[in-house]
Amino acid sequence: MNDINKRIEEILSGLTLKEKIGQLNQQETPVDGDAESFKEQVRNGEIGSILMSVGATAGNDAQGAISIDFYNELQRIAVEESRSGIPILFGRDVIHGHRTVFPIPLAMTASFNEELIERSYKDIAEEASNDSIHWTFTPMLDLARDPRWGRIIEGTGEDPYLGSKFAAAAVKGLQGENPADKNRILACAKHFVGYGASEGGRDYHRAEISDYSLNNYYLPAFKSAIDAGVKTVMSAFNDVSGQPVTSSKYYLTEILRNRLGFDGFVVSDYDAIVQLIRQGVAENDADCAELALNAGLDMDMHDKIYIDKLEKLIESGRVSEETLDNAVRRVLRVKLIIGLFENPYCKQEKYDINKHRQDAKEMACESIVLLKNDGVLPLDKSANIGLAGPFVYEKRSLLGSWMLDGKVEETPNMYEAMKAKMSGTIHDVGGTGLSWDSSLKWLYNSDVAVLCLGESWSSTGEHRAVSDISLLPEQKLLIEKAKSTGKKVVGVLFCGRPIEMQGIADNFDALIYAWHGGSEVANAVADIICGDAVPSGRMPMTAVRKATHIPMYYNVTSSGRPVNCYYGENAGECYIDSLATPYYPFGYGLSYTEFSYGDIKCENKEISLQDLKNGKKFSISIDVKNIGGFNGKETVQLYIHDKLASMMRPIKELKAYKKVLINKNETANIDFEIGFEDLGFYMPNGEYVVEKGEIEIFIGENCLTQRKITIKVK
After folding, report:
1. What is the torsion angle, in degrees rounded to the nearest 10, for the CA atoms of residue 18, residue 23, residue 24 and residue 27?
2. 401, pLDDT greater than 70
């Protein structure tokens, strides 16, 4: 690191003021006709990074194919023709796949499998790095409790611990042990902080977050990403409790750098700096630049505020050159750490795309959640199937939003996947299957109906909030018609968010939640339907009965009255007109086999607080037996409840889990070690404390488990 610091100072000392500012300027790929003027800006050292897409909502807008020759030419100009010779950092939104598309991040989180998540992002990095990409704007670590928010698909759901595990796995998968290694790219933890708490699920809106909630719910995943070595962080559009993050030294410097220990650089979200004017804290562009840079925001994405305004601000003394230099140091450090000076150009190499497709299928299989099964699944491969619904032939929506470089034509649809898997007759009707005078024949001549339903990719992602999270009326009608025939009905839901379940799940004999699962999701679903794969996914978010119950999340504090509705305590008193319990709770998911849990065991149920601080841990174990007819994976989940504390604590909070393969008729002993870092919480000032007293330990299949023991911190 000393060598890097020395080199940074050597580079910095040779830069003009304009060139320094240029390192903080990220511009998007030029459109036709702008290439020559863009190259001149590169030649003049005015561009430090290029956003390899166009538009604020690139995840839902068509993007051009990547031209490696074009980006290599821009890099050549930067390295060989600019005075500084500093290479450009190329960034693109490779959120959950490149050529091979993996499940949306919310679905990947449902796998509860960090090893597989890390491997998936390793594949993604390999493909992206072969297309000139140095940097991707993922993982998104915005804890969110409102599925109406379109960007729910990019995150990890409602739990800070699960989000922390995803964060570390994604960063390690993308960056590896050394981000300078071949086929690795930079990760970017976003959006710091509170974007997922936008009121009403309305994108870009304000968030109201107490310091207590910030520390215990919204920061842990970012801390995990930082501990895993993430080198870039993206700031959030939103304000938190009246303070825009873009201009907040409290959030970007005091918390992110000083408290969490982040040592990389911060990039703004798209045009976020200029938005300070509309947010009412800046009068003009110069004010925006002054506030953002002084807050600790290093790189300006797209709106040209820094490149246009910083020079005069520094000359006038409103921004110090020392502040500018520190931001440039952070950008240069990252460029040096990833070896960009030594390897500035893209040199394509062959990679095994078939292996990546296999990994994508495995990821999709483990992400799929079996929500209901009244003895219908798996189906015999010789069964005659009636296949209907808008997702029978759909391909594009299987890939989800934020899919810039996957190939729709390479994506099997459900008809193709089922046709290849099953030997029986498939009676299919395209579209919604609502030509009732003739189309019901597809079901009368079938053994079972498989309805392929869901939501379009275009109703998810950035700037795609919805007020109604239920299925469309036509799809509900199809379910009712299929059910009316008396045949068994299997539902397969391809959605980006948890949807409203009341009136939907009731009418299925079996229900599979397949998400927007990527390039291989149709094949994965076919494997599960016929039993070639055993479902093992778990819900990373609560599935509500009615959207009007939002927000509903499991790690809630207790009410002072006996109406803790999530956990079924007088649930009819929360709303007098509806039952206010989750339809499917956090951590829920079925298998084709059945698991029997033994008693929870703990070697030593009492440990002193001082011993915990010194590293001693509670050793807790449980036997889990597979008593069903299939080999299967079980996600054994451990929750805690601090019974008496100086601040209100959640009724349950996830603190550990293990996903294990248990063969039929075999028993696995699952052990956990719970220590100081697991048993405490953060005070509003950010201080982490573990307090003396009794703590309940719950172990089971999901957050509603009542299987528990009590330990004590003396």
Report:
1. 100
2. yes
